[in-house]
Every structure is written in structure tokens, then in C-alpha cells.
Amino acid sequence: MKINILPVVPKPSVLLLPLAGMGLFVVLYILAALNYPGGSWVVMDQEGFNFWNNYLCDLLDRNAINGEINPARFFARGSLGVLCVSLILLWYFLPGLFSKKGVNVVVMWLAGLLALVITMSLTSGTHDITVRIAGVFGVIAFISCFIELYKAKYFSLVYFGIACLIIFLVNYYIYETGTFIRSLPVIQKVTFICFILWFSFLDISFYKYLKHKNEKIRMSH
User: Fold this and answer.
1) Burial degree of 155 (CB within 10 A; 0-12, 13-18, 19+)
2) How far is 156 from 205, CA to CA, in rounded Å?
3) Handedness of CA 72, 77, 78, 79 (dihedral sign)
4) Which residues of 162-194 are buried (b: 16+ CB within 10 A; e: fewer)?
5) 217 Cβ partners below 8 Å, 6+ apart?
6) How far, in Å, CA of 119 to CA of 132, rounded?
7) CB within 8 A of 187, min separation 6: which ones?
8) DSSP assignments along the chain, one per residue
9) pLDDT per position in the chain (221 positions), as tens?
10) How far apart are CA 157 and CA 172, in angstroms?
């Protein structure tokens, strides 16, 4: 079944942009953490950002938990925007990694793009509903992607991706039930690190695939 709504395959160099964006996200979030005034839901009057107690989302709010104006929000919101745009660029072209582009690829493509666009509204004050809606689309996108990656024999990406998804679901369970809630700030950061690594490996694999494909085309001519 031929699908016509999918994008054309990009030049390999385009895939360097998402990698750069993910790197910039990390730098900006570190700057945000360094500029956070203080306070967490565990220790309201703590100084600065605490790895063990603060959530990454604390950096996005206008006011820090201790009540002070939060200058870190500019770095945090910028980093979230950069990350989402970078991943949207990667996901937009991702169907080009797969030789057969059936219905499952379209589901993967649309669900992933919707999840990332919705995630960009995390700064709008609708945190809980944003997380839930983006999470549903994200799970659909990842499962669809794992199926295609498995067909294409990217087994390491599939296994690592499944591990990331399990960690994400643990996050969601703790968030909704309150079980082991004190451990959630750390688990959240581990989840972010794992997903950034997974997306980076996915991007690199896609880049290598396109480079190899272009080289074969040049040699054939």
C-alpha cells in the first residue's frame, strides 16, 4: 500500500540538526538548574535546584517553589522548545528510515508529531492534561516505531526503546498513584537521560543509513 502523505527522504546533513538541538537542550537545562532560586515540594526553603528533590518541570514555572520570581524559566522554556523542534524534525523525516511505508508507519508518524507538538504546551499551565494526552500519543508512536525498527533489524534500538518505555510507564504510575513519590524526581531525570540517548542513537542510525544509501547510488552511477 503506497502512502503519499509522508515526506521525502532528507539529505543526511539534515539529521545533524536534531543532534545539535538535543545537545543544546542539555546545556540550556543545566543553565536553568544553575539559575533556579530554590524550593522543592520536599524542602520548601531549600537553596537552588536539588537533583534529588526537584522535578524538571519546576524550572518552567514563573515562580520558584520558594515564592521568588524564577529566572530559570527562560532557559528551561527555551530548552523545551529547542528539544521539541529538534525531535519534530527527526520524527518528521523518520519514515525515510523504512523501506516499506504502510499504515503502521503513518500511525507512528502522526502520533509522534502530535505528541511532540502537544508537549510544547507544557509551559501553558496545563501540565497534567498535557502530560496525559501527549503520553497516550507518545506510547502509540513508540510502539509503532518499535515494530518498524524490528522489521528493519535495528534490534538494539528496539530493546533500548522498550526499556525507555517501561521506565516512562513507571514514571506515569508513580505520578498518578503517589506510590514511591519521593523517588519520582530522580526517576524522571533518569527517564529523560534514557530517552535523549535513545533519540540520539535513532538519529545517528538514520544518518548512517542515508549516508550508506547515497554512497550506493553514487557508486551505481
Assistant:
1) exposed
2) 11
3) positive
4) eebbebbebbeebbeeeeeeeebbebbbebbeb
5) none
6) 10
7) 167, 170, 171, 174
8) ---SSSPPPPPGGGGHHHHHHHHHHHHHHHHHHHT--B--SS-TT-BS--TTT--GGGGGSSB-TTSSB-THHHHHHHHHHHHHHHHHHHHHHGGGG-S---HHHHHHHHHHHHHHHHHGGGGGT-HHHHHHHHHHHHHHHHHHHHHHHHHTT-HHHHHHHHHHHHHHHHHHHHHHH-TTGGGHHHHHHHHHHHHHHHHHHHHHHHHHHHHHHHHHHHHH-
9) 455 688 998 999 999 999 999 999 999 999 999 999 999 998 999 999 999 999 999 999 999 999 999 999 999 999 999 999 999 999 999 999 998 889 999 999 999 999 999 998 876 667 788 888 999 999 999 999 999 999 999 999 999 999 999 999 999 999 889 999 999 999 999 999 999 999 999 999 999 999 998 888 777 76
10) 22
